[in-house]
């Protein structure tokens, strides 16, 4: 009888500062403060200080940042990346974004149809946000669509917006936090990331089981992990050809001795911040009394809107306090008691360490 056991698909993995990817991720986070709790104080405060026009422009730019993203990974600096953007084919980049919005289930949603119809474009993206329990301002999508109709205007808008934000908002903080990011990269130099499947590599670097977010069957050869001080507990992903880029909260590797105190402190603070809220604590308490609950259950029990519940659940899942699984059309949540014990142990270790 032939052996049908397949060899596990292993990939190359590395941890990199990736300045352009890091800064682009921070800029994108500035448009997510209303749907993600637990982002860095810098991101929250900066977003709160935006004028309505700045808030709108950043949201518009965020939809176009995939253009030229393949040049961001290995750019030596953010300035070098912006210079490269001047030569990028924005028309081709816009077509790639539009193709990403098309699905086999909706053959009418072709790139040509989406570009020809502002209403269809807005409908498709709004439906995607609705499935995530999020709302999106149609005015933002109208402006995105307008820019997609004129690739050169889109180029001028994106580069101008990124230049303005970098020099007036992001640059000082980037250079101030760069030593922490570099410390995270050095710490992972002590971790063996060879001969791992995608899920094993993600577990080793982020400390989380990301099944469903990353799969062992993905058609990739490499994962580049980029530590950030601004993304909170969330992991963001971009696929650049056969390389998967994951931005994660800067943290010390598990089991590595003498990890940076700053990194250990940040990791514990991320976990404690998820618990420093009455609603999120109530969610955890409810799950000590019920094996599983869905979003609608929490809405009824806590008298909250779907978007509010989703925001809290998202942070608790990202910090590992909740397990999430899909059943039929709903997501169900259960308490991850192991994470509670891990947080307690990490806090004890941090407060009793010497040196």
Provide the fold topology.
Elements: E1 12-15, H1 19-29, H2 41-49, H3 52-64, H4 78-85, H5 90-100, H6 111-116, H7 118-131, H8 138-148, H9 151-188, H10 198-206, E2 222-228, E3 236-240, E4 243-249, H11 261-275, H12 278-289, E5 293-294, H13 295-302, H14 306-318, E6 322-327, E7 330-335, H15 337-352
Parallel strand pairs: 1-2, 2-4
Antiparallel strand pairs: 3-4, 5-7, 6-7
Helix pairs in contact: 3-8, 3-9, 4-9, 7-8, 11-15, 13-14
Summarize the structure in words.
The chain has 2 domains: 12-249, no CATH class; 277-352, Arc Repressor Mutant, subunit A (Orthogonal Bundle), CATH 1.10.10.10. Helices cover 55% and strands 10% of the residues. It has 15 helices and 7 strands. It has helices spanning 19-29, 41-49, 52-64, 78-85, 90-100, 111-116, 118-131, 138-148, 151-188, 198-206, 261-275, 278-289, 295-302, 306-318, 337-352, and strands at residues 12-15, 222-228, 236-240, 243-249, 293-294, 322-327, 330-335. The strands form 2 sheets. The chain has a 4-stranded mixed β-sheet with strand order 1-2-4-3, sandwiched between helices. Strands 5-7-6 form a 3-stranded antiparallel β-sheet. Strand 3 (236-240) and strand 4 (243-249) form a beta hairpin. Helix 11 packs across helix 15 (337-352). The longest helix is centred in the middle third of the chain and has 38 residues, at 151-188. The protein is globular and about 55 Å long.
